[in-house]
Automatic annotation (TrEMBL):
Transmembrane segments: none annotated. One of its GO terms (molecular function) is zinc ion binding. It comes from Aquincola agrisoli. SMART domains: ZnMc (SM00235). Residues 46-188 form the Peptidase metallopeptidase domain. Pfam families: Astacin. It comes from the Bacteria. This is M12 family metallopeptidase. GO terms for biological process: proteolysis. InterPro entries: MetalloPept_cat_dom_sf, Peptidase_M12A, Peptidase_Metallo.
Amino acid sequence: MSLNPENRPFRPAAKCCYDFILPRNLMRPRPQAVGVGGRLRAVGIRGTNWLNGSTLRVRFMGGTAAEQAVAREQAGWWQAVANLRFQFDNAPDAEIRISFDASDGAWSTIGTDARSVPLNQATMNLGFLDGGTAAHEFGHAIGLGHEHANPDGGIQWNEPAVIAALAGPPNFWDEATVRHNVFKKYSVDQINGTEFDPASIMLYAFPAEWTLNGVATQANETLSALDKAFISGAKMYPKAKPGMEAAIALAVGGPRLEENIGQPGEEDVFRFTADREASYEIDTRGRTDVYMKLFGPGSPTALIAEDDDSGYGLNPRISAELMPGEYFVQIRHYDRSSGTGRYTIGVKRR
C-alpha cells in the first residue's frame, strides 16, 4: 500500500496531536463490523456523535484575534459539509471550549465526551496552528478519531525510531504516550467509518524513517474527498435529515407512537415536555434492536443518558429524574450500516 501515492516530498511534522479518548470509550463492547469485500472500516468513535442537526457553541479561552480567526475558518470546513453548525458566542457553558496554550500541544476531546469536562476547563487546545491543525482538532470535536489508528491502515511502525523522535521537542512524549498516540489502533468494535484514507485531514504526517517499509505520509492540510463523504454520510451528520425543528412530539403518558427505521443509518428524533420535576421513563418496544439517547433540558447537545438493552429484549429504556423543560430523544438502529425495522416509543411519569 502506498501511503503517499502522488510521491510528493515529505514535509516534516514533528508536532503531533494528543489522542484524547476517554477510557470508557476504549472499553465499550461493540459487535464487530466489516466493510464491502470484508475490509475493515474505521474513523469515527462510536457513541460520541452529537445529535444530527445540532448547533455547537464555541468559547475561546484566550488566543489572539488572528488565532481565533483561523479556528473559525477551519471549523467552517466541516460545517460546509456536515449537518452541524458552530456558533462562536463565547457562552460560559459552550460545548466546545478552546485554549491556545503553546506548551500543551494540540488536542481535543472526542465528540460528546466534551460534556465530561468541567465548564472551567478547555475541551480543545490549539497550541500550534500549522496548516490544517484547527480543522484536525475540530474533526475530533465532532467525533472523528485519528486516521493512522485505522485498523485497516496497515502501517508498519519502526517503533524505536518513532519513540526517539517524539521524545524530543516540541512533543517531549515518553514511551507510553507515544504508544497511546501513534502505535495503538482503534479496535473494529469501537469505531465507525471508512477504509483507510491517506489524504485524510485526520492523518498524522510522518517520515519514511518512522516505518519499517520506508513509506511516508504527506501533511494533509485540507479535508479529503473521503473526509467530506464520511462526515456527511449516514453514520455521522447527513444534511438530508431534518433538524431539531422536525422532532416528533411525544406526549407524556400518551399513546405509544409507531415508528420505523426505514433506511440504514436513519435517526429518529422526538421531543417531549416534562411539566414538573419527577422521574420519567422512556422506552421502545418491538423486535428491532435500537439505541436511545436522551438530551436536555432545552438543549439537543446536553446528553443526559444513553441506553441499549435495558428494556424488553433488545429495546432501550431510560429512567431519569428530570427537571421541568423540553427534552429530546434520539433513536437509531444499533447496526447503523445495515439495520432497519419497526418499533414503538413512549414516555411516562413514574
